[in-house]
Amino acid sequence: MSGIDHESADSVATTSQGVRRFNFVLVPKFPMLAFSCAVEPLRIANWLSGKQLYEWFVATVDGQPVVASNGLRLEPNGTIAEVENPDIVMLGAGVDGCFYNERKLSAWLRAIARRGATICGFGTGTWILARSGILDGHRCTIHWEDILQLREQFPGLRVTDRIFEIDGKRLTSSGGTATMDLVLNLISLDHGVSLAAAIAEEFMQERIRDGSTHQRMRIRDRIGTTDRRLLAAIALMERTKVDPMSLQSISRDAGSSRRNLERLFDLHLGCSPTEYYRAMRLDAARQLLLHGSRSVLHAAVATGFASASHFTRCYKKRFGRPPRSDRRAFSTPVSGSTS
């Protein structure tokens, strides 16, 4: 159980030998993969043990069916008001979670937090927990695409880039398969490592990652090279895609000349350093537009574009549409929520 401190582990482990109930709260466009990765280990725990170790209840704010981000419709068991004596609540949200602002849900989360419930956000559920105020003073995480925006909007939070965080009674998962790792760690706390490992094997999961694991693949694995100068340059670009460096500075800090760096990029990646860096900065700008509150001009300036017109031309060339279309598409509240 490395990666989870003993105090945090004690706070989330079950305190009885009875059935433990997981309460899932889903909002529109919730991530089906992360939800499945949370509930399926509980089912397999019951099956392998031959006992009813876990049960689960799925709720929405109003008890109405909810549509996942993949378009599938899920029928809940009831409303959040029907979640009785919650031990652990897992709130799931997807791509629009940063815009979801349902006051009824926020008030309910604060109420159960005061009653001592363990509350988890997976996907952009972290964003909803932050907006409700119940993550204040706690470590948390979110999908790597949203880390910058979450830190910017909630500067008082301690946001990490780990796959999940367990900090007292506040749990957060970056989403996707990381949610399975989180739940397997919880099962391990409840019923031992052997059961958790057996569940992982049922899913043909090579290992159970702990909370110290970082989200993104190593750069060398992503681009398929081991050249230290190229890796160092790309690492610098990733760290400075917002507020970018000059290519001359990147070359120097990577231990290379600009000319040699251009040769390495062409050899291994089939493009120039300038093209690679520009694409990376455009991707960062798109994330600012999709998941944050920045204007097009703000996103352009933040990612090192000298003018909005130049930014718009580059953006349209890369994504096939102007930046304003993405800003409009993702800047309105989720249907059924209140701002």
Q: Care to describe what's here?
A:
- This protein has helices spanning 6-12, 32-49, 103-114, 125-132, 147-153, 178-191, 193-202, 219-223, 228-239, 247-253, 258-269, 273-291, 296-302, 308-319, 323-329; strands at 20-26, 54-60, 66-67, 73-74, 78-79, 88-93, 118-123, 139-141, 158-160, 164-167, 170-173.
- It has 339 residues and is an alpha/beta fold.
- It has a seven-stranded mixed β-sheet with strand order 5-2-1-6-7-11-10, with helices on both faces.
- Helix 6 (178-191) runs antiparallel to helix 7 and helix 12 runs antiparallel to helix 13 (296-302).
- The longest helix has 19 residues, at 273-291.
- Mean pLDDT is 89; it is low at 332-339.
Helix count? 15
N-to-C order of helices and strands: HEHEEEEEHEHEHEEEHHHHHHHHHH
Which band does the percent of strand residues land in? 5-15%
Structural class: alpha/beta
Helix content: 40-55%
- Radius of gyration from the alpha-carbon trace, in angstroms: 22 Å
Q: Give the overall pLDDT as a whole number.
A: 89
Task: Specify the biggest β-sheet.
Answer: 7 strands, mixed
- Largest sheet, order of strands side by side? 5-2-1-6-7-11-10
General form:
globular
What's the number of extended β-strand segments?
Answer: 11
Question: Topology, please?
Answer:
Layout: H1 6-12, E1 20-26, H2 32-49, E2 54-60, E3 66-67, E4 73-74, E5 78-79, E6 88-93, H3 103-114, E7 118-123, H4 125-132, E8 139-141, H5 147-153, E9 158-160, E10 164-167, E11 170-173, H6 178-191, H7 193-202, H8 219-223, H9 228-239, H10 247-253, H11 258-269, H12 273-291, H13 296-302, H14 308-319, H15 323-329
Parallel strand pairs: 1-2, 1-6, 2-5, 6-7, 7-11, 8-9
Antiparallel strand pairs: 3-4, 10-11
